[in-house]
Amino acid sequence: MEKSPGTPRPTAKDIAADIRQDVVRGTLAPGDQLPAARELAKRYGVTIVKVQNAYRELSEEGLVYSQVGRGTFVVDPSQPLADGERAESAFVTLATEINAIHEAIRLLGDRLERLEEAVKPGRSKSAQ
Q: Rounded to 5 degrees, what are φ and ψ at 66?
């Protein structure tokens, strides 16, 4: 999303949206390194801080992670990351919530089986 002269400069949210689109389209694949903040800032005609804010937004969403001295990379969900790289991401939060829901469903299923067994026709009241 390079801007021509006279058009408004993109916000960090605009830059993050462009990167998200590149991931969806497959232009950026899991494990790919994003351009350096300085390079992307020059391409968009914005400050490095705007690009860093876009990268931070994507990191908080769990879409990318940064390694000091190496760069920012698209998350590969099949590869585990070190604790600090994705510890607070929305991805991890969502996965934790889904696991809790699965456990609750399993417990409800067990309870339903016990209740169905207890009310089966043919069981005498003395056996209950």
A: -115, 145
Q: Are the C-beta atoms of residues 78 and 108 closer than 8 Å to each other? A: no
pTM value?
A: 0.60
User: Hey, where are the domains in the chain?
Assistant: 12-88
pLDDT digits (tens, 9 = 90+) for 69-87: 999 999 887 666 555 554 4
CATH class belonging to 12-88: mainly alpha
d(CA 1, CA 78): 29
Q: For the chain, what is the largest distance between any 2 Cα atoms, rounded to a whole number of angstroms?
A: 87
Distance in angstroms (rounded) separating the CA atoms of residues 114 and 93: 32
